[in-house]
Amino acid sequence: MAKCNTCGKATTFGHNRSFSQRATNRTFKPNLQKVSVMEKGRLVKKTLCAKCIKTLGKSAN
Fold first, then answer.
1. Backbone phi, then psi, for 58, in 5-degree steps?
2. Radius of gyration of the chain (CA)
3. In sequence order, what DSSP letters do the residues of 17-53 get, joined into one string?
4. pLDDT grade for 59, boundaries at 50, 70 and 90
5. What does the alpha-carbon distance between residue 1 and residue 39 come to, in Å, rounded to a whole number?
């Protein structure tokens, strides 16, 4: 569910590293937002990451 419709960016996993270098699990979540996008002359709601929203804005101009 938490996945960008354009690039497929999703939650990734890694480690928190303390000063003593003890590794505990953590998640890296992408900045996903629900946006209305014009597609083939119609408004479509999509879940996009911030980077894809930025590039859509650049290509629209």
1. -70, -40
2. 16
3. E-TT--EEEEEE---EEEEEEEETTEEEEEEEEHHHH
4. confident
5. 21
DSSP string, 48-60: EEHHHHHHHHHHH
Nearest CA-CA partner of 1 in 30, 35, 25: 30
Total number of residues shown for the chain:
61
pTM reported for the whole predicted model = 0.80
pLDDT in tens, 12-58: 999 999 999 999 999 999 999 999 999 899 999 999 999 999 999 88
What residues pair up with 47 in beta bridges, in sequence order? 34
pLDDT (0 to 100) of residue 44: 96
